[in-house]
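Appendix C reproduces, verbatim, an entry submitted by the partner laboratory led by Prof. M.T., so that reviewers can inspect both the input and the predicted structure.
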Amino acid sequence: MKRVKFLFIAMSLFLLSGCMKASVNVDIKKDDTGSVTYKIAYDKAAMEEYEMDTDEMLGEIDSSWTEQGATVTDNNYEEDGVEYVGRQVTFNFNSLEELNTKLQTLESEEEEDTETTNTFMTFTRNKDVVTISMPKDEESSESIGMMASMITYTISIKVDGKVLENNADSFDKETNTLTWNYTTFIKEGITASYNTSLSSNNWIVYIIGLGAIVLLTIGSINILKNKQKKA
């Protein structure tokens, strides 16, 4: 079965028992341009304990993404006394079509299983509305079990427009960012849509406009009172 590269790599989390952290962040502008940042990091000590070749795994990430024109940098850090080694991958896109193409071409090299649904995300536009979708992974959802609590893996999508509907675990209204956790996007998939002709901050404009009207009204009343006093 073919899968998007970052989702395919995520399956190794079941073997690592929580020794890996990953995140995918998509930033889409109103004109359908934007960027994708993918971060992955392994617990160095745990990898050594499991006798897994970290260099080889990171090397596969390097070759897979650089072939697509992405920028790959080190993602090494220490957190809560644990040393992590990994990669940060970033690439830009100039249209939703280009974004879809890059996501679909970054697949595993497994043989295609025509009876199994691919699990890559797709972004489609119908006039002013953009729809984001990814089918649930029926095969993996049956075996998540207790391992889900050990997995730190999120997909976040920041959009430029009014969010109409979504099944995200969280929605940050200040940044207009939708975030899905591993369990959700595996068991339920991803569903979201937004309208690029409507601003997520329309209420701010409304409040500012209302405030201006109130101030003008108060000012006019004060002027009339002063004129009456002089008269």
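The first helix runs from residue 5 to 10. Additional entries are available on request from the coordinating office.
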